[in-house]
Design a protein that fits this description.
The complex is a heterodimer of chains A (about 375) and B (about 350).
Chain A lengths: L1 H6 L2 H15 L13 H14 L17 H14 L7 H13 L2 H13 L4 E4 L15 E5 L2 E12 L6 E7 L10 E7 L5 E7 L5 E14 L3 E2 L5 H7 L1 H8 L3 H17 L5 H29 L9 H22 L17 H8 L9 H12 L5
Parallel strand pairs in A: 1-4
Antiparallel strand pairs in A: 2-3, 3-7, 4-5, 5-8, 6-7
Helix pairs in contact in A: 2-4, 4-10, 5-6, 8-11, 9-10, 9-11, 10-11, 11-12, 11-13
Chain B lengths: L3 H18 L7 H6 L8 H9 L18 H13 L6 H10 L5 H5 L5 E4 L15 E3 L2 E10 L6 E6 L2 E6 L5 E7 L5 E11 L1 E4 L3 H32 L1 E2 L2 E2 L4 H30 L3 H30 L10 H11 L6 H11 L7
Parallel strand pairs in B: 1-4
Antiparallel strand pairs in B: 2-3, 3-7, 4-5, 5-8, 6-7, 9-10
Helix pairs in contact in B: 1-4, 4-7, 5-7, 7-8, 7-9, 7-10, 8-9, 9-10, 9-11
The chains are: A alpha+beta (about 375), B alpha+beta (about 350).
The structure holds flavin-adenine dinucleotide.
Amino acid sequence: MAQDLDSLPDDAFRLVVREWVEANYPPDIRNPLKRLHWDECKSWYFLLAEKGWLCPGWPKDYGGMGLSPGKQLIMLDEFERHGCARTIDQGVLMVGPLLIAHGTEEQKAFFLPKVLTGEHVWCQGYSEPNAGSDLASLRTVAERDGDEYVINGQKIWTSMAMDANWIYVLARTDRKAKKQEGIGFFLVPMNMPGITVRPLLTLDLNEEFAETFFDDVRVPASALVGLPNKGWSMAKALLGFERIFVGSPKQSAYALARLRDLAERMGVADDPDFQAVAMRHQQDVDDLTDLYEVYVEQVRQGEVPGPDVSMLKVYQTELYQRITETMLEVAGEHSGMLEPMEGNRALNPAGLFLQSRPSTIYSGTNEIQRNILSKNVLELPG
Amino acid sequence: MTTAEDRSESLRMIRDSAAGIAPRTSDLKRIRALRFTEPGFDRSVWREMCEMGWLGLLVPEDNGGSGLGVQEFCALTEELGASLIPEPLIAGALAARLLPPDQLAEVLSGERIVLPAWQEKPLSLDLAAGGTVFTNGTVTGKKIFIPMAAGADAFLITVPGGCALVERQAAGVHLDCQTTQDGGNQGTLTLENAPAMFIAGDVSDAFETSIMATSAYLLGAMDRVFGMTMDYLKTREQFGRKIGSFQALQHRSADLKIQVSLARATVNAAAKTQDDSTDPATRKAAVSRAKARASDAASVVTRGCIQLHGGIGYTDAADPGLFLRKMMVLAPAYGSAALHRARFRDLAPAGDED
Ligand SMILES: Cc1cc2nc3c(=O)[nH]c(=O)nc-3n(C[C@H](O)[C@H](O)[C@H](O)COP(=O)(O)OP(=O)(O)OC[C@H]3O[C@@H](n4cnc5c(N)ncnc54)[C@H](O)[C@@H]3O)c2cc1C
């Protein structure tokens, strides 16, 4: 099955994905109002798992589809186009690729199948209260004690920690080494004694992330991936695909479609002022799509995008936000309401406005992305 | 005519008196606790505000008010905005200015809460769009987006030629309240031959004051959240430095400061125009310019403050979000920025064109 898919021309492949999604995606969770919890999105996760489409990027030997990066993006594209919910995908996107590259045979044999079945649901324990943009200054420690590590510290903004049963953690293994060099990468079950999760409400009033505390959490030495001082470089290498992912124009295109629905409902769709604004957004989306294609092509050719890929993240997230700001203008007083207009999920200006806010904060804030662009791409002094 | 000195003294006194109920340093605990409750504000605080004379600030002294000007009222609502006070003082004061003297005592004392209901369509400043009419002692029609309607004892409904006073509990009155992003509520009022008392008069002047007062409230809110954010930039450290030392954030902060200052200058000038000018077009044009700026600047500033906070800015527990959500409700209230720019275009003196 998967062999056939990879050898299909892109257009034919896109059609196969589209038809299957349209026929099978659970309609009740289409275009969800908020990021879904495990109970709400697992039907989709299991559907993908059963079809063998859960892990497009993993090699076939490990139960993935072994798809080329270009085809993976097409799949993503089709899922977003249909309004498919994001699953709790850290196992698929981060843990799998990490273990395939750096894990031991035992680690791969134990963990990969459990991601594929949904038995393990993962969350990411990187950020700490005092280590956000400056992640390398993290202070959670993992101290070697015989054939165990003892983890102490606190993580924060851990997305879906309340739903996950495993967490991957960056923790300091060597306090004397240079910032980036004394960090290890650990795989920890959430039900360990000493782990406490305290959910946090987002601005959008969703319990979407949490504080995660580690108090003398003992894990076997086999919880470490790779070398005890190589966690940082392994984690960085995982970010390349993420940068393209957050730069996908689909998020903006989705918001623009909702803006048009809203304009229709508010009776201004034919208003020349509205059309001028909508046209500007449309062109921004189209031009971003062209730029995105440049990077997709790189990936298709097997190249690893350079630091300039940060342009996609900056432009996409800010365009997304601009479009939701126009939504507030068009919605007028409705933009102050807590619930979508007329209970219609497609008419949710306030919700989209709020949900677009963190996109310029997570995955490296846009200020940090601009620093990368000016330093590593433009090579400006300082 | 008051002198400039008298005026600044009276504005200072108003600000000082506001500090009793709405201190700029308040921790916003009371505001958080009232969110998403019914009616969304505290009647005992309302009574205190009335005792301070705030509801009747613009009501003539002969009628039991303080007879002060728009500048004083805006100074007060700016302070309320800085503390995100949920009690519907701006709306209540609008009604108080329109009620006849014999209806005022209970209202000014805070015993009875009368809130205005003027709007019939979204994005409209039309006080009597024609959908709500008074005939034979009853009123019929529909009004929407009534601020804090869940706490009203009676409504003052705008109709052609004046207002109609309707008891909330009266026959033919149906109130449906929707929760707003700031944790308050807005009502949709459906009236079917509801018994009402007609009050003839022109609503528009009092209405203009409400637009001004809302602009000042937004000014107070944006100024406070901006101040909080500057404090955060001076304390939060990343990369071994205060984040306020990063030039990217310094420039962003400077841009936000420009917005706050523009809003302050425009709102103050427009409030003065209300007290000094008698030309309706000049007065209205100034109001529209103030509300357009205040709405836009509040949006830019509250959004910017979330970004400057990083992850913590996207939590409900952090205060900047409270200001952002208040902005979402008040930026469009009493006319959005776009609506007021359009009205300004229609009203601006011809000389402003070139
Ligand atoms: C919705 C959401 C989900 C998240 N999920 C996860 C998760 O699952 N796991 C996880 O580990 N983390 C997660 N995060 C955390 C995210 O990675 C951090 O919020 C982000 O890295 C910023 O760190 P901070 O919040 O500490 O902000 P800070 O780093 O304190 O930033 C505050 C402000 O300072 C600016 N700033 C900082 N340094 C510089 C500089 N050098 N130059 C210019 N400006 C600078 C920032 O851009 C920002 O405007 C999530 C965040 C959000 C909002």
